Fold these 4 entries.
Entry 1:
Amino acid sequence: MIGANGAPAWVRKLTLLALGIVCCVIILGSWTRLADAGLGCPDWPGCYGSLVVPQTAAEIEQAQSLYPDSPVEVAKGWMEMIHRYFATALGFIILVVALGSWGYRRRLNYPFKHTQLLLLMVLLQGAFGAWTVTWKLWPQVVTAHLFGGFITASLLAVLLIRLSRMGREVRPLRLAHSIGGLRIWTLLGLLLTVEQIFLGGWMSSNYAAMACSDLPACNGEWWPHMNFAEGFNLTQTLGPNYLGGLMDAEARKAIHVLHRLVAVLLGCYLFLMALKLWRQPDSRLRFFSSVLILLFSIQFCLGLANVYWHLPLPVAVAHNFGGALLFVSMILLNYLVFSRRTRPSYE
């Protein structure tokens, strides 16, 4: 049972389910991309004109006649379609939550606008999923699609918190100093995290993860010859097939090296921010202090493992998912310090 001002139980349960599914979608999406299966189905939303991957010899022959330039690879096709099945289930659940929220929009503190924003986000993600295929893995779209998945997960996590707070008194933040300085720290931390995730997505979508094959230098050089202008050219031609990437070695090294440098910068910043959070009297801030340091440490080690062991698929997928967890954690921390329901008290 819930109180008159509490969140409907079915909305909370569906939101929790959607959060679990979006984690699966992020993992499956990165697995598909890193296994070079992003074009396992050359069309969208089906696969060679069907809702399942061609299996029999007759089905494969028919599929090949429809798409003569895209040889049928059953295993890669199933990777892509399973990812789409999960994404479709996620979209359906969010649609139900968004439509059902109209009946509760006048309830005190009900996050009605939040549910509608979430629906818009998942529709946009569907469009990015279609463009990823029809535009042949254009790096700009692939990177935006990655970000969209992380944002969707963050919106669901915040929605779950907002629903759990309905009908309850929320403890104000207990702080030792002014909230202004803490907000600047957390906001800058989020911006640095966003920059690092963009670099990681851009590196992956341009197949630059192995542009530097050793540590800590890059192919035996501390500062190799790099082409930053080409590496970060956001006006790449729309039309070619970008599977495998089209940039030259110098451009890919520029992306890879900058990703490494920003990782070090982010790590130093998060360490200092974590110290600031740990010194606050509020246990929630100390919790985030520990979580952020733990997540970044794991991410850093996974990044090193990717280079040392030449991008093993499970490690690369874990690194991608770790980025999502770090992003969601930074969003939740910022929500905590900026939320009007946690206006601080000072000791």
Note: Residues 1-169 form one domain.
Entry 2:
Amino acid sequence: MRVALFVTCLVDLMRPRIGFAAIDLLEAAGCEVVVPEKQTCCGQPAFNSGDRASAAALAKKTIAEFESYDYLVAPSGSCADQIRTEYPGLLADDPDWHGRAVALAARVYELTDFLVNVAKLETVPGDYAGEITYHDSCTGLRSLGIKAQPRALLAKLPGVKIKEMNGAEECCGFGGTFSVKFGDVSAAIAERKCGNIQAAGTGAVVGGDLGCLLNIEGKLRRMGDEQTQVLHIAEILAGGK
């Protein structure tokens, strides 16, 4: 099957190795992976800020670039949700684009969901060993049902032990534009999340959305924690390839 990787803005700009790790995992699952070169933003920041015109323009651009592939896969629950859940409503007043949005939405997956439920990946190439705790990102968890999938994949690494933190399903305080509009509230939520991470006593916190992970890492470092690794699940599963 031909899979188009939606890299996401944050991965492209802040931690490209996550994109390469996602490619390694998709190829390990037997997929032909294509990375459309002209892809940009899914439009979520504009959508969340009320700029529907810009969000719709970016939605149309994304649909045109990805609709010819068997699947669109993103290493981010929030971006996958924007394309799968929001595009059809955003383009509801345009019959042609609405139909194209619906057709693409049916083939959009977050990375771990795709690897478990579509590609049915049996083994992963990574060799990480150690105790980790897992942060469940809000949108992936509540809109896409991403909970068991990453843990099932981590269970394929014999050297990994998951220690669940208190409040694993609670927000990290990022929330995209929320962290900009409500900085004090966001910081307090992040501090609570990071306290739970530290209490778990593991060497790393792992998650599936880089926005959350950057927020968590920044707060941990400001709290004086220079030891806890903050890793995307694709990095753990793919290893140092």
Note: The two ends are 23 Å apart (CA to CA).
Entry 3:
Amino acid sequence: MDTQPHTLKLTDGQRIDWLRLIRSDNVGPRTFRSLINHCGSARAALERLPDLARRGGASKPGRICSADDAAREIAAGKRMGLALLAPGEFGYPPRLALIDDAPPLLGVRGAPQIQMQPMIGIVGSRNASGAGLKFAETIAHDLGEAGFAIVSGLARGIDQAAHRAALGSGTVAVLAGGHDRIYPPEHDDLLLDILEQRGGAISEMPFGHSPRARDFPRRNRLISGVALGVIIVEAALRSGSLITARFANEQGREVFAVPGSPLDPRAAGTNDLIKQGATLTTGAADVINAVQPILGRPIELPIEERENDGPIDDEPRASDRARIVGLLGPSPVGIDDLVRLSGTSAAVVRTVLLELELAGRLERHGGGMVSLTL
């Protein structure tokens, strides 16, 4: 099993504050973390949201989730047997807590122990071949027998085959929508089977949220985020599974690709991954040998609230703010470059970027790059 010190335990009041903050306008996981670092606590951040957004150029105040709405969501989750967990609480997948945009609160159903096991992701084509489905079943079963939980996205094709083959050993479904908006709808029974047989389900989305196209890449980063590595069984050249592989690379996870016929377009993406350095995978042993050295490494906790909610150092001056905003544009620029070119401290640059984010004027890219939204 993955091990980490489970020292974080939110109070009821903190959990409501955290939920209010992450459900407020223009606050995503990275912004949430920046706000906690800047303000010291979620409650202090909630109080400062309007002023920070105004400084960033917001034309009107953004919506701040109310305490009543947050309490209702928590109560609705409890009725479904769902817990909203923070990184470091038991049942929050330990490796997911390490990624830059880890959900501050994750909706978790099922046996919490399954979330603490070492996981391997298996994803691939929805329109899978018979050979692809058979391979997904075989490797999911074999890895399950070796003590790994299998994580996938509950989609048709490869995902479905991997989940079903791992029902006896343990599998986790990562949802693109809320826990009450299963997609595809016909997999509601599959999810029930997963939850009844040692498995689990996770989502960062609120109740009532039906998944949109842009939510599936967000889900894919969670599939790779919880896992030691991800196996791509079949994927066309323009495939959501390749997005999962890209996230895995960015998160420092292992990428495994199953080779296929060059005549089958469903193998074009996996064959290309192998050319780019992914581990060629023909069986569970290839995966186990690659991840074995990682299993014993300690896992450290990220987000923590501070007790001191006093004045914040390094508040930007108007001239600092103008200089930093002037260096930004539609083309991405590195945050380190902004610090160097602006002649200000990293703390000041981070604060200005936070203000712009809350005003809906900043877009973050991979590799610490940011740009102004058009």
Note: The chain has a mean pLDDT of 92.
Entry 4:
Amino acid sequence: MNPIEIIRKKRSGEKLNREEIETLINGYLNGRVADYQMSAFLMSVYFQKMDFEETAILTEVMLRSGVVVDLSKVPGIKVDKHSTGGVGDKVSLILAPMVAACGVPVPMISGRGLGHTGGTLDKLESIPGFRTNLSLKEYEEVIRKTGLVLIGQTNEIAPADKRMYALRDVTATVESIPLIAGSIMSKKLAEGIDALVLDVKVGRGAFMQNEADAVELAKALIGVGTQFGKKVIGFITGMDQPLGFAVGNWLETVECLDCLKGKDIPDLMEVTYILSGAMVMLGGKAKSIEEGIEKCKETIQNGKAWNKFKELVAIQGGDVSYLEDVSKYPKSKHIVEIKSEMDGYIKNIDALEVGFVSIMLGAGRMKVDDEIDLKAGIIFNKKVGDKISVGENLAVVYTDKSDDLRTSIERLKKSIFISAEQIIPNKIIHSLVDEQGVHPWYGCG
């Protein structure tokens, strides 16, 4: 079957069958389909979309391109979490040790930064020595010993997705529901989970910038997971401003360490607790999300989550001394404070623009092979709704780059909007999505 015919068919908006999808994906893996042809296919899907049947087939073909891990010998219900990506989204580093400390095994295969969003792997690798490139044998050994494991996608796990993931980032085809669904679920189904909790971001800093698209993506992910016999629920959460205060890999990791030791960063911990509570419920260690949240809070209060994270870092080769004393970490060449030029209240922080500025500072990638400066980024001093005075610190920029520093600072200033009137921030948890549909979220209780 000629790949050109398949690309033309999808470009024209026609539905592809299993044989055509298999031909294209497997052909890309074995070299019969070139990068430029796969790029054309991805762009065709971006514009013409796929229906649920096509999306499910795409997911299965990507899943079957590699191995499916069997964790049946690991006791308990294995539960993972996946976020569709945002700016300052460092939830996994707090959530995974909390849930594992509650007795729910957490096998997590994560990704790197994609587009303007950060990646869990890059944050973990900011810890000196931390290994995310474990073999599947090591992956199984770590979760058996510690109850959690966080690694990157191996060559054996959905290799078709691994190659397509990198190509999507540099061909502006990231924001496609079937491509996102296929990428996420092929990895998650391969890692040996029994259940999955989704954090589907919506807003300026998310790939889904309106509620309808976010809900459509959540339904697609839940539908695919259900078809493969997994229990999946999701939450639609806001991403109009960065989550927490830190943006950038090591800076975000330090913020997570603070939270694991008991610091309350309201928006970050609200999202973290709702997702972790749902995981604990699906893992059979709580009867409700509310009870799961309370159990997770206990792991912060009694230090079990903090100790679990240190245990994970140690077993995956990381230097725990940097967790105990973050002042040991190398400092950026340029550390610049951004001062407010007016009195008022923070009206908005443009998360998308912040994401692009962080890339300019060195915290993200413009090309697949770009090297990241793990210590680069931004720490905000204010959130939406906070009062600000002339001369007060809005944010601090960290970078080794000199060439783009002035431009980065100017863009960052323009991404922060100040109003004379106080703004009430939008709620961050919008709704819960499950097999029965969409349910407005009013909180626990």
Note: The first strand starts at residue 79 and ends at 83.
